[in-house]
Design goal:
The protein is α/β, with parallel strands linked by helices. The chain is about 40% helix and about 15% strand. It holds the Pfam family DZR_2.
Length: about 250
């Protein structure tokens, strides 16, 4: 019954998406120009020439967080070698450099909600097997503080999570975690300040989390302080294994 409700919900979302496409035509994830009819028919969300401006995460990358490494002799990035983690493994789609930085800014602040569809498609192409192997039971987006989300009108991590949920047929639970602290933007802080900034910033909406294998999704991974804080609370509430998938990640060297 629950699976049927899950599918019906996304059938409704798909109808709404089709309606919105008539009002807000799809734009290229990289250059933000309108897509050609041929691209839309082939379900491409980026121009062929623009794709060359993206830097997909490829090996070698950190065995733990998935950040790109300088050479194949190194197994873990500097950050993961230094810190204990509540995350089992992490993966990401693109290196946070070049054109994708502007794309992510538009995704977060310029109402480019449909970029989530492109990111979900990329996640399926790159990391579907990894997600299936981990036997993910639920997708949990990193939450925004409620006042900020109301002001912006959406949570970009939740959009990414829902789009991925639809493709993977795994439930997305955007309200499983709540941000109870209005934190400063992480980009303004250094490593230690980021850890303190998100300390006690999250809590579970349920006393006991019934899902044992959870995938956290977010837009950008830098030091990992935010996802670590979310993962810690999930494990305290009963999750056994917590994984992370982000749209972009910084280099681990």
């Amino acid at each position: 019954m629950k699976k049927r409700q899950h599918r019906l919900k996304f059938e409704t979302v798909s109808v709404l998406d089709n309606f919105l496409e008539c009002i807000f035509p799809p734009r290229c994830f990289v250059c933000d120009r309108l897509l050609e009819t041929a691209d839309i028919r082939r379900q491409r969300n980026v121009h062929a020439a623009c794709r060359k401006k993206l830097y997909p995460v490829v090996q070698p990358y950190c065995y733990h967080c998935g950040s790109p490494l300088a050479d194949t002799e190194t197994e873990y990035c500097q950050n993961c070698r230094k810190h204990r983690s509540f995350v089992a493994e992490g993966r990401s789609l693109f290196v946070y450099r070049g054109a994708v930085q502007k794309s992510m800014y538009r995704f977060k602040y310029a109402n480019r909600r449909r970029y989530a569809r492109f990111l979900a498609e990329e996640a399926m192409q790159r990391w579907e097997n990894w997600m299936r192997e981990k036997r993910i039971e639920a997708i949990v987006p990193v939450p925004m503080y409620s006042k900020k989300e109301r002001y912006r009108g959406y949570n970009q991590a939740a959009l990414f999570g829902r789009a991925l949920s639809e493709k993977m047929d795994i439930p997305c639970i955007p309200r499983l975690m709540i941000r109870v602290k209005d934190t400063r933007p992480q980009k303004e802080l250094n490593g230690r300040e980021r850890e303190n900034n998100v300390k006690n910033a999250f809590q579970s909406s349920d006393n006991v989390v019934k899902y044992k294998r959870i995938l956290i999704v977010d837009d950008i991974y830098t030091t990992g302080s935010t996802v670590e804080a979310v993962a810690e609370r999930l494990k305290e509430a009963g999750a056994e294994q917590v994984y992370v998938l982000t749209a972009c990640i910084g280099r681990g060297f």
